[in-house]
Amino acid sequence: MGTQKGKKTVLNFDSEEDVSKALAKYTADLSEKFIKEKGSFTVVLSGGSLIDTMRKLVEPPYKESVDWSKWWIFWVDERVVPLGHDDSNYKLAYDGFLSKVSVPSSNIYAINDKETPEGAAADYEARLKQLVESKVLPLSAVSGFPKFDLMLLGMGPDGHVASLFPTRPHRHEKERLVTFITDSPKPPPPRITFTFPVINSASEIAMVVTGAELAYMVDVALGSAPPPDGIPPPCTEVSAEEELTWFLDKDAASKLQTSG
């Protein structure tokens, strides 16, 4: 076991609608499992199309059956804008998900939007360390970094994950829990982001990828396509301690040689 990476599963679905249904069941099942095991469920969200694909989770039967009171919500990355701004991942998640379920507001960890990018990253890291001290977040026995139960991630056409971009040095950060970026190649430029040691310490990770514009990068990550410029993109570095599950619709999987 020791330093072994967890297993990787690739699930292919006919449509984004089918991905949405499967993702809801997967998340609800993990919620039940972790709450039974340890009394809480720590979930890390991302931006992009993920929140929309989570829509089935706020519908019956899950809206009623999931124990939302035991959830803790975090963001793998966030744009350093006011929380009410249209670019905010918090606002995206609130409008599409959190406003429809009863996660306690004290368990929802949005960034401090009054800070600079550097200050917001330092503040978020300090709050994570407090949760480690209070035993809400365990430390990974493998990495020594905080271990979240589930991260729900997407990726960009360039293979970026969170705000870890192919051409930025932040993807190589090994010490910090949270770092900041002021020149994101994708607007808005100022952001904070979890680092790979934290991402890869998660027990479970779902990589939720839909749409034909991501098919090439899916083939780079999972198939035989050579990486652009010969440099493996960040999406190829994602691993989970227990299991990394890729959720692909037919369009995203269209360049893979085999389906499974």
Proportion of strand residues: 15-25%
Indicate the overall shape.
globular
Distance between the termini: 26 Å
Any idea what the radius of gyration is? 17 Å
Sheet with most strands: strand arrangement: 1-9-8-5-2-3
Helix content: 25-40%
| Biggest beta sheet attributes | 6 strands, parallel
Overall residue-averaged pLDDT value: 95
Beta strands, count:
9
Q: Spans with pLDDT under 50 lasting ≥5 residues?
A: none
List SSEs in N-to-C order. Answer: EHEHHEEHHEEEHEHE
Query: So how many helices?
Result: 7
Structural class by SSE content: alpha/beta
Question: Which labels suit this protein?
Answer:
single chain; about 260 residues; 6-stranded parallel sheet; 3-stranded antiparallel sheet; 7 helices; globular; EC 3.1.1.31
Could you describe the 3D structure shown?
- By secondary structure, this protein is of the alpha/beta class.
- The chain has seven helices and nine strands.
- It has helices at 16-38, 50-53, 62-65, 89-96, 117-133, 196-199, 215-222; strands spanning 7-13, 41-45, 71-75, 77-79, 150-153, 178-181, 191-194, 204-209, 243-249.
- The strands form two sheets. The protein has a six-stranded parallel beta sheet.
- Helix 7 links the parallel strand 8 (204-209) and strand 9 (243-249).
